[in-house]
UniProtKB/TrEMBL annotation:
Lineage: Bacteria, Pseudomonadati, Pseudomonadota, Alphaproteobacteria, Hyphomicrobiales
Known function: NADP-dependent dehydrogenase with broad substrate specificity acting on 3-hydroxy acids. Catalyzes the NADP-dependent oxidation of L-allo-threonine to L-2-amino-3-keto-butyrate, which is spontaneously decarboxylated into aminoacetone. Also acts on D-threonine, L-serine, D-serine, D-3-hydroxyisobutyrate, L-3-hydroxyisobutyrate, D-glycerate and L-glycerate. Able to catalyze the reduction of the malonic semialdehyde to 3-hydroxypropionic acid.
Matches recorded under Gene3D superfamilies: NAD(P)-binding Rossmann-like Domain (3.40.50.720)
Protein EC: 1.1.1.298, 1.1.1.381
Species this protein is from: Azorhizobium oxalatiphilum
Name of this protein: NADP-dependent 3-hydroxy acid dehydrogenase YdfG
TM ranges: none
The reaction(s) this protein catalyses: 3-hydroxypropanoate + NADP(+) = 3-oxopropanoate + NADPH + H(+); L-allo-threonine + NADP(+) = aminoacetone + CO2 + NADPH
Length: 270
């Protein structure tokens, strides 16, 4: 089984200037990977790159891009397609909004979809094609526990994370015989800047339940090494996820029939 320890080469991490992406960069460099850091904040990436070069001796490149734009996505997708040294993609870049659909305008909603849905799709596709052709690679997509709990967040954000989960599960099936691993990571509340940016006091909402970023990433990497397709770092009882998946799979043979279910059939008037 492919693990990150057995994959030589470079890891490309999006959203790498801070938070989860920056910690993934740190951990992967310490595991022996060179890095390509992708985000908009060049100053922060340069500071991180300087520290990691000094502490790990790895090669760290800063590649600025705005993944909300077609140009930015094309630039990173092209790098994934053309650079044979890249063996790991961490699709971490994400955007949240304060409020829900009724409180946000079209431009903000389109930007969220561009970053949270379009970018991971385009980059995962580019990486999947390149990695499969070489017979090895890893794609790590950051989803969220909100993919399973739309009641707890804005509909656009939770919907985007549900998309990433579905994308990852199907892509893992598509690539299962190619030597390429796919993992969806579903963080719970994690102590990152995203809460400040959306004006949310997460400690007031979930006192004592906010995970440190380092703990989150270390758990996610342990899940990858264990062979998981879906990793939920805060979930203590793995049986709950197993039961959830079993119930979902049990639905599959019943989701397409020639006639509507009996409870939906309207009696024909005499």
């Amino acid at each position: 089984m492919t693990t990150l320890s057995t994959l030589a080469g470079t890891a490309l991490v999006t959203g790498a200037s801070t938070g989860i992406g920056a910690v993934y960069a740190d951990r992967l460099a310490r595991r022996g990977h060179d890095l390509v850091l992708v985000a908009r904040d060049v100053a922060r990436m340069e500071a991180l790159a300087t520290r990691l070069r000094a502490e790990t001796g790895r090669t760290v490149e800063v590649l600025p891009a705005d993944l909300a734009t077609q140009e930015g996505r094309a630039r990173i997708a092209g790098r994934l397609a053309d650079d044979a040294a890249i063996s790991v993609l961490v699709n971490n870049a994400g955007l949240a909004l304060e409020g829900d659909l009724l409180q946000n305008g079209t431009e903000d909603l389109e930007r969220l979809v561009s970053v949270n849905v379009t970018a991971p799709t385009v980059l995962a596709a580019a990486a999947a094609k390149a990695f499969a052709a070489r017979g090895a690679g890893a794609i790590i997509n950051l989803s969220s526990v909100l993919a399973l709990a739309p009641e707890l967040s804005g509909s656009a954000y939770s919907g985007s994370k549900a998309y990433v989960l579905n994308l990852s599960q199907k892509l893992a099936l598509v690539l299962k015989d190619t030597g390429v691993r796919v993992q969806a990571v579903l963080p719970g509340a994690t102590r990152t800047e995203i809460w400040e940016k959306t004006g949310t006091d997460i400690d007031a909402i979930l006192p004592g339940k906010v995970m440190a970023v380092g703990d989150l990433v270390d758990a996610a990497l342990a899940g990858f090494d264990a062979g998981e397709v879906v990793t939920i770092p805060p979930l203590a009882d793995e049986g709950l996820w197993t039961a959830h998946e079993a119930a979902r799979i049990a639905l599959l043979p019943n989701l397409s029939e020639r006639l509507p279910a009996e409870r939906y059939r309207v009696p024909v008037a005499a």
